[in-house]
Amino acid sequence: MGCERWTPVEAVLHPLGVVFLLLTGVFPLPAQPPPAPSAPSRADILRGEYGLYRANNDLLFYHLDIRVDPEKKFISGKNTIRFRMLKDGTRIQLDLHAALAIEKILLGDTALQYERELGAVFVDFPETLITGRVYTIDFYYSGNPVETGRFGGIAFRKDPSGHPWINTACEGIGASLWWPNKDQWRDEVESMQISVSIPDGLVDVSNGKFMGKTGLGDGYTRWDWLVQYPINNYDVSLNIGNYEHFADRLGDLTLDFYALPEDLDKAKKQFVQARGMIEAFQHYFGEYPFQKDGYKLIEAPYSGMEHQSAVTYGNHFANGYLERDWTGVGISPRFDFIIIHESAHEWFGNSITAADVSDMWIHEGWATYLESLYVEYMWGHDDALKYLNGYKSKVRNTQPIVTQRGVNRTPPQDQYFKGALFLNTLRSVVNDDARWWALLHDFYQHFKYQNIMTEDVVEYFNQKTGMSLTPIFDEYLRHPALPVLELKFDEAGGAVSYRWKADEPAFAMPVRVGTKDHWEMVRPTAEWKTMKTPLKKDEFEVAADLYYVNVSKM
Ligand SMILES: [Zn+2]
Fold first, then answer.
1. How far apart are CA 3 and CA 73, in angstroms?
2. Residue 446: phi, psi to the nearest 5?
């Protein structure tokens, strides 16, 4: 989820006695539209912009090799960074939070100069790096990372029995909060090695395939993990604790589960839902994206996060979301929201990733829509529609879903709920379920392991459907308000006039009207059209479960 970005929050008491901020499903709409976003700060631009010193290189590989001291809340080590130059240059931009010290940055044996500005680190090379060539540098660092944000970013805690419990969840603040990397969304390494040295007796679960552990002879053990796919920085995670492990398989896919000893029985019951979840999403989209790395589900002290192949879980081992009926219509209590939503991100967010945080609905709108696909797979279309339309109460329609590019700023929460309701609307526009399922499957397969923008999504859907869907995408994603279907009744004459009132002049979405037993498709535009109808104003309906629109009757 990366729920860090949800704004409506309430303080609730976590079982550990720690006050966590969690979102509430019910919150009042603001009386006034929120003010226009403030101008981006220098820090937001340094983090968000894909400038020259990022664009001149292409990441290939990281080896993050660190030692974590739970008592001192201290990290030290290095990230080995391999990249290919795309343009001749003597400088690249990396990122590391200002609270952490740079020990040295080496190219072979040569110490490199660097300049720090807020969270950015500009690394200078004594000789020009040549286009097409591959370079490897070692970035040594250390320090006490700052705990920040709802999930702590990186949090050094204790479990209820007093063992260290250290977890990361840093999507909003950025992975450079705790390790040096090229901290943006457009460019991902193709693979990564993660080595974490921790006190003997503790377990580290990170991303990828477990390669083994090695006693270091000084009271520490190194845990080695290998990520065999592209991975975005914020997905890279530490889960250090007194974990117990249990395992299952789904065909060739390994399923590995980690929970604290006191929660093991509850975890064994609740985590069986991972199987049905994977079967459902494989049905719609194809093979689990990280087959070689395996699927892992790991208990954490916050609600949950989509860490690639190592999903973290803190949903109280209960169905719904934090023991609530999440969309309020009786469907959510049938399944564990966090297992379904966070794992849906393996397909949308982790495999397909937005190239800029401005287009994050590609993660959250899709993952939220995938919840309803899971419901449809398990319990049928009617329940899926009911579940999805329950989300309407959470939509605000006050800011566009797609935000300014090149600025590190999380888009509004409408990217989740309105994003999902928009995709359901798009299914009704395609109006052919066999075609819709093929489109979803092929769209995922076409873009898997890539970083894309909204334009790529629109172009794909336009091309594959042969329809002009651009105004529909733009209306829902680039404007705050919903389109309004205006209806003007002439009951005496047995007619109704209709037109769209929308922000996109070319918005001409077909929509079903009439009665539930006898929908009729009309194709409104911005101009009035008239149709005959025996229905009175009170009887005439719009298929609002299938199309997310407002209706105005005159
Ligand atoms: Zn999410």
1. 24
2. -65, -40
Sign (positive or negative) of CA dihedral 172, 178, 180, 181: negative
Q: How many CB atoms lie within 10 A of CB 317?
A: 18
Question: How far is the centre of ligand 1, averaged over its atoms, from the C-alpha of 338 (Å)?
Answer: 9
Q: Which residues pair with 321 in a beta bridge?
A: 324
Q: Can you give the pTM of this predicted structure? A: 0.94
Q: Give 78 Cα–ligand 1 centroid separation in angstroms.
A: 30
CA distance 322 to 26: 13
From the CA of 133, how far away is ligand 1's center (Å)? 37
**How remote is the CA of residue 489 from the centroid of ligand 1, in Å?**
43
Q: Can you tell me the distance from the alpha carbon of 416 to that of 306, in angstroms, rounded to the nearest whole number?
A: 15
Per-residue pLDDT band at 501 (split at 50, 70, 90): very high
Average pLDDT score over the chain: 93
Distance in Å, CA 261 to ligand 1 centroid: 27
Distance in angstroms (rounded) separating the CA atoms of residues 483 and 509: 10
DSSP code, position 148: -
Q: What is the pLDDT of residues 378-399, one digit of tens each?
A: 999 999 999 999 999 999 999 9
Characterise 164 by phi-psi region: left (phi > 0), alpha (psi -120 to 50), beta (else): beta
Does residue 175 carry a pLDDT above 90?
A: yes
Distance 184 CA to ligand 1 centre (A): 18
* Distance of CA 3 from the midpoint of ligand 1 (Å): 7
Report the distance separating Cα 509 and Cα 473, nearest Å.
10
| pLDDT > 70 fraction of the chain, expressed in percent and rounded | 93
Average pLDDT over residues 231-240: 98
Q: From ligand 1's centre to the CA of 1, what distance in Å?
A: 3
Ion ligand 1 residue ranges (Cβ < 5 Å):
1, 364, 367
What is 468-528 written as a DSSP string? Answer: --HHHHHHHHS-SSPPEEEEEEETTTTEEEEEEE-SSTT----EEEEETTEEEEE---SS-
- What is the torsion angle, in degrees rounded to the nearest 10, for the CA atoms of residue 43, residue 44, residue 45 and residue 47? 80
Dihedral angle over CA of 534, 538, 544, 548, nearest 10: 110
Residue 276 structure tokens: 């049905």
For the cut 70, the answer to whether the pLDDT of residue 287 exceeds it is: yes
Among 36-50, 289-303, 385-399, 430-444, which is the least confidently predicted range?
36-50
295 touches 254 (CB < 8 A): yes
DSSP-assigned letter for residue 348: B
What is the DSSP pairing of strand 239-241 with strand 164-169?
antiparallel
pLDDT in tens, 155-170: 999 999 999 999 999 9
Instruction: Give the span between the Cα atoms of 328 and 456, in whole angstroms.
Output: 34
310 DSSP assignment: S
pLDDT at 456 over 50: yes
Residue 311 CB neighbour total at 10 angstroms: 26
At residue 139, the 3 state secondary structure works out as strand
